[in-house]
Amino acid sequence: MTVWLYGDDVNTDMLFPGKYTYTCSTPEEIRPHLLEELDPSFASRVQRGDIIMAGKNFGCGSSREQPVVGLRAVGIEAIVAKSFARIFYRAAINQGLVLIECPAAVEAYREGDPVEVDAEAGTVRVGEQVFSFPPLPPEILAIREAGGLLPYTWKKLQEKKG
């Protein structure tokens, strides 16, 4: 598991360049361009289960879905940041990508520290330190488990049909 550390104001163009907005829509098309201008090694090195740690206002900028779709598709376990842009936060919920707002954990992180996120319990472990955040609501965890809002909604509809 790798922890990717980024600073403040990482915008959606840094996560997925806007020049590809109308030419890349599937996870396979999006992946090679993830963070290509911010961190050219990211797309080729990211692994399922990796975590991103970041500063404030992560995901600011335009309201495109590709950054969230891509990060979820490559298997990012969670993004722990000091704060998130509101539109990005909602897009992440829709795709089942876990976002954790925990400034103290980000401040404590040093390169090489192991990081563990327990979204259900509301904890982030950085090295030997444990930081708390409000646990994610069961509905958001269920959306993540289902693979996003659309599969979650479909599952709920099927359950009602019985």
Q: How would you describe this structure to a colleague?
A:
This protein is α/β, with parallel strands linked by helices and 162 residues long. It has a single domain, classed as Aconitase, domain 4 (Alpha-Beta Barrel), CATH 3.20.19.10. The strands form two sheets. The protein has a four-stranded parallel β-sheet with strand order 1-2-3-4. A hairpin with a 4-residue loop joins strand 5 and strand 6.
Q: What's the quick description here?
A:
This protein has 162 residues and is of the alpha/beta class. It is built from eight helices and seven strands.
Report strand order across the widest sheet.
1-2-3-4
CATH architecture classification name: Alpha-Beta Barrel
Query: Strand percentage, roughly?
Result: 15-25%
CATH topology: Aconitase, domain 4
The CATH class name reads Alpha Beta
Helix content: 25-40%
